[in-house]
Amino acid sequence: MSGPLHPQISLYAAIATRSFRRYSTYTAATLAGIFTNSVFGIILSFAYLALWEQNPSAGGYEADQAVTFVWIGQALLMTVALWSGGSTDDLAERIRTGDIAVDLYRPVSVLGWYLAADLGRGLYHFATRGVAPAIVGALLFGLVTPSVVGAAGFLVSVVLAVVVSFAVRFLFAASAFWLLDATGPRVLLSVLATFFSGLTLPLNLFPDGLRQVALALPFASYIQTPADIWLGRHTGLDMIAAIGLQVLWAVVLLATCALVLRAATRKVVVQGG
Amino acid sequence: MVDADTPAAYVAHAVRSYWLIALLWIRAAMAYPVSFWTMLVGGVLITFLDFVAIWLMFTHVDTYGGFTLREIALLYGLTSIAFRIADMLVGSVEKIGRYVRSGDLDAMMTKPVPVLVQLCADRFELRRLGQIAQGLAVFAWAAPIVEWSPQRLAVLVLALVSGVVIYFCVFVIFSTIQFWTTDASEVASAFTYGGNTIMQYPMTIFPREVVRSLTYLLPLAFVNWYPCLFLLGRTDPFGSPDWFRFASPLAALVLVGVTTLVWRQGLRRYRSTGS
Short name of one Pfam family for this protein (chain A) (predicted)? Predict the structure, then answer.
């Protein structure tokens, strides 16, 4: 596996590192974000506690698991760029201005470039706006901790969450190739992602039918799947199946991204760039 | 400066300026009617899912914090209408930091219209009517549980007006933080959007300290909690004085005073970036 693969990997690592550092320059914004995530975490924790006081096993969760779910949600919403943001926003902007033509003729895969940048961003947001509010949550409410296998599975699941979310955002941003302005689709996406990721309410609390649909959608990969792995709801083969579904979505969506990009490239050429 | 010799003339000038700038942006938006109406309907759908989440909670419980779904819809509707109207009226105040960085704030300082009016009217978004409509729809669905009387109607109207003023002030107060740190706009969201979220739930699910803070520090409880207790004919589980139910205008007035002070301090603190 040596040879041509190695320089590619170090290139993507360099892109991810630069992206990480780019976000780390906005210290005040990060601190402000940690504060806001914590405030919402506290509000939702009380909201969930009141629900679980009435129904101590709603959705198959115990009260302390439900509160932990809240803080995992707050930790992951910026990590997966639930409300957009991240490298796909740059992509949409570059499509609008026409700068995308430059990207398309670089000797690097456009998809790989933007994915690497988004992973760097995701890592920064996870390390700051993920970890810090979770500490606040642990101090104020006490959180459920996972087994070692659960923690490892969680981390794998979070990386896949970023990849799936990236691919979805990439597709919505790519709509700008045809619509020129991707604002409308982006608003729609943030609504769907908020509701179907489990951020507002764990998907296991959805009524039958809607629940099965929601769990099968790629948005479940964002928060619901990593959270259930952390909480020990998916163990052994079940965990492998849950992660497998994330991998499946990642592969299918990235392949779709590649196809869309190829179609878009032809369009850019026809337009003359 | 302006022909604003009396406070009344000053306010009239400010309102007129606001309206003229807002009208400009409404006309601009109406130049693309399809886009405008899509966004408007989109706004209804977006906030609709917001309430669906609360509705889904009720598939697992019969009452929540001692309140039924319709009673919570009443709380939800009242805070949503007030919050979304305020959100529409404050426009770009949330983006002060961006205006400071770009130097646009300097340009605003030289114009004969108060800076706050310019900021609020800038990029006025009429399409936010969609979100206000969602709040109205939820409220209308809840309204039949109230035994309406002229007195209750009066409390409702006062609460709505006060609620808009209170949220407007919260938007302005916490946006001024950006005069000190231009890229900390998210702190404001914790109090504005966070404030709206917290008021969607009955106060009974929160510890007493939280309810006290929302009464005496940041008087959001006067937006819907105390007026709704009156509309529903319920006594306050936290034992607050009965007159709190009618005190929404008082809370709004005090907050206006605080906001004026904070805003002036912020503007005084402002130093151009020179860009």
Answer: ABC2_membrane_6
